């Protein structure tokens, strides 16, 4: 089963994260759409994700994950030692999400923001929906 990652297409940190994931996902498990795209908006609506959610979203079949749970779901499928981060799922979600929210709240200040989504290279374009 392929997994869809919805990300903030205007966020430089999020763009870098998508590039990081692509490099460590040689089997092509992950597909991507920006939260701002028509596809992203449609998927959010289909899965009843509240409009005010400011998080990366992972959709695996009928299950939807956000915030730290989404990040950890991604890490468990990456090649290399990154999958070991999934052990952090044992940390209570309020603690994990507090750390996630701190980074999310400051991501534009720390990493910047762009006016539009990045254009993927032709070799990875097929993974963007």
From TrEMBL:
GO molecular function: protein-disulfide reductase activity
Any one Pfam family match given in the protein's UniProt record, by short name: DCC1-like
Protein name, entry field: DUF393 domain-containing protein
Species in which this protein is naturally found: Bacillus aerolatus
């Amino acid at each position: 089963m392929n997994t869809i990652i919805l990300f903030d297409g205007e966020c430089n940190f999020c763009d870098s994260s998508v590039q990081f994931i692509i490099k460590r996902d040689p089997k092509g498990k992950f597909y991507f759409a920006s939260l701002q795209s028509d596809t992203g908006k449609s998927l959010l609506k289909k899965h009843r994700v509240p409009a005010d959610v400011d998080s990366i979203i992972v959709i695996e079949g009928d299950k939807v994950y956000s915030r730290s749970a989404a990040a950890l779901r991604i890490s468990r499928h990456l090649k290399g030692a990154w999958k070991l981060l999934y052990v952090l799922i044992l940390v209570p979600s309020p603690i994990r999400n507090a750390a996630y929210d701190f980074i999310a709240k400051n991501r534009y200040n720390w990493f910047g923001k762009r006016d539009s989504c990045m254009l993927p290279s032709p070799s990875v374009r097929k993974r963007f929906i």
